[in-house]
Amino acid sequence: MTEWLQKTFTLSRYRRGFHLVTGEVEQQVPELGDFKVGIAQVFIHHTSASLTLNENADPTVRDDFESHFNAMVPEDAPYYRHTSEGSDDMPAHLKAALLGSSLMIPVSDGRFLVGAWQGIYLCEHRNHAFGRTITVTVSGQK
Amino acid sequence: MTEWLQKTFTLSRYRRGFHLVTGEVEQQVPELGDFKVGIAQVFIHHTSASLTLNENADPTVRDDFESHFNAMVPEDAPYYRHTSEGSDDMPAHLKAALLGSSLMIPVSDGRFLVGAWQGIYLCEHRNHAFGRTITVTVSGQK
Amino acid sequence: MTEWLQKTFTLSRYRRGFHLVTGEVEQQVPELGDFKVGIAQVFIHHTSASLTLNENADPTVRDDFESHFNAMVPEDAPYYRHTSEGSDDMPAHLKAALLGSSLMIPVSDGRFLVGAWQGIYLCEHRNHAFGRTITVTVSGQK
């Protein structure tokens, strides 16, 4: 029988940049431990922050993500028209679209079935943000 | 009990650019209203158009998406070899890969559980396109 | 009744670049043929290789993907700090995040319900890599 779990919660507040939040997400859904096989979705309710899976060991990787996304999606590009909410706003929307608002993660034996080096990044693209709202939805067999 | 809904339909024809289509998608799947909890997938059957979730209020955000993606993925780059289908074709494939062909959206109480500012964008990357084919698949509990 | 299938396997080893692997993935999950309706996830366990759906016909499209991603995410950018694993390593992480580690594909009548031109790309971003680990998870009705 397939069962469902859905939980909405607020992450801690993070400064602009890329942050490893695997532990914080797992802590919110201890019920994941009951699923033998399934799929989990981690979804962010925002258009100026995003989620990705990437390298979980060396923190300079996250620094380089921030540097590269700032180079690839600059502030104050001459063609921006949506400028009323600050120089960091329109780039934040573009970065969020490039990285995505949803992570899909296979579940096996009560845990995220990911590679040894894969961790969940919260990608905070605004200079000043509150804690971001996340919904985790899991379907699977217990 | 988990139930499934799958519907394939054609969106209206849109000009090149980024377009808010939340309402048009919702209209095609009124059965979504019966799902108490679940996940919906919105999938596009094409390699030169894509889907993303982003800001649903100010239309200049969509204009800036078009400007920025044109700057980040230029036409007529000197290294393109796939040029026989027009200057807009290879950039369209690259933009589609960057944004993605699939949106995963949590479902709660009969509706898409998204943030207040999140809307579904059809990202049309070709100069001249027909209506794009979409499949919505929902699984969940009624 | 919703049933689940989950299989983890290793893809053939591919050189750096973009490779069409639809057939190789399908061959690993012949059980897909039993699902009348559902969703399949193809997930890669790595942070320096990724998956996308794109044009399956002209091989120069895949060449142009490699050229463009190399231009958009250069090696040896002056702001990279994570440089100890080689010039191709940090760009590989960034490319993987841009393209994503998970493909979600609707399933209908025992096959992937994709457009005529859509194929699964393995995006290999490292110069020297072993065969990559993939997990396919399918849920649906038989």
Topology:
Three copies of one chain form a homotrimer.
Chain A: E1 2-10, E2 17-20, H1 22-28, E3 37-44, E4 49-55, H2 59-72, H3 89-99, E5 102-108, E6 111-112, E7 118-124, E8 133-141
Antiparallel strand pairs in A: 1-8, 2-7, 3-5, 3-8, 4-7, 5-6
Q: Care to count the β-strands of chain A?
A: 8
Count up the helices of chain A.
3
- Percent of residues in helices of chain A: 10-25%
Biggest interface in this structure? A-B, 32 and 37 residues
Radius of gyration from the alpha-carbon trace of chain A, in angstroms: 16 Å
Q: Which spans of chain A of ≥5 residues are poorly predicted at pLDDT below 50?
A: none
What sort of overall outline of chain A do the alpha carbons produce when their principal axes are compared? elongated
Report the order of strands and helices of chain A. EEHEEHHEEEE
Terminal residue distance of chain A: 8 Å
Oligomer description? homotrimer
> From the helix content, strand content and strand pairing of chain A, which structural class follows?
alpha+beta
Overall residue-averaged pLDDT value of chain A: 98
Main beta sheet strand tally, sense and closure of chain A:
5 strands, antiparallel
Q: For the largest beta sheet of chain A, what order do the strands appear in spatially? A: 1-8-3-5-6
Strand content of chain A: 35-45%
